[in-house]
Amino acid sequence: xxxxxxxxxTPADFLKSIKGKAVIVKLNSGVDYxxxxxxxDGYMNIAMEQTEEYVNxxxxxxxxxxxxxxxxxxxxxxxxxx
Amino acid sequence: MIAPKKQNLHGNPSQILPSELIxxxxxxxxxxxxxxxxxxxxxxxxxxVFVNMVLEDVTEYEITPEGRKVNHLDQILLNGNNIAVxxxxxxxxxx
Lengths: 82, 95
Known about the structure:
Chain A has about 80 residues and is mostly beta strands. Chain A has one helix at about 10-15, and strands at about 20-25, 30-40, 45-55, 60-70, 75-80. Chain A is built from one helix and five strands.
């Protein structure tokens, strides 16, 4: 489907632009994962590094490497860094 | 018997495809209602065939029994899977 989105930032563009950046991934369950995005694909499958798991806003776990299957992802967010 | 006239989608200017409507929202504020007591408002930057959306300056509302939880985010890629409703122009009682 061709969409007339000239100058728009499509999901594919966004995915390309955030590789290697700090991100927050929220799952459908409400759990947050904060870390550095190692790689990802069109299914929103994600590999992250230095990952921190937040449940109800509280840090519960840390993982050096983690994989998130894309079907669980609600959103991927960039982190505004000072 | 007379066969019904074929509707010409392009002949009537009042007929807009859903994807065209979303395309017209690119660059403006939208209010997205998700399945399961969640709402998201932000500026639409782009979308794809699954209506996954890139949003900027995002406010996330979570309706819980204890009240409304609000969360601000810079730029997000929202999975289209859970989207129920998309309203152009943003949240109505935006204050």
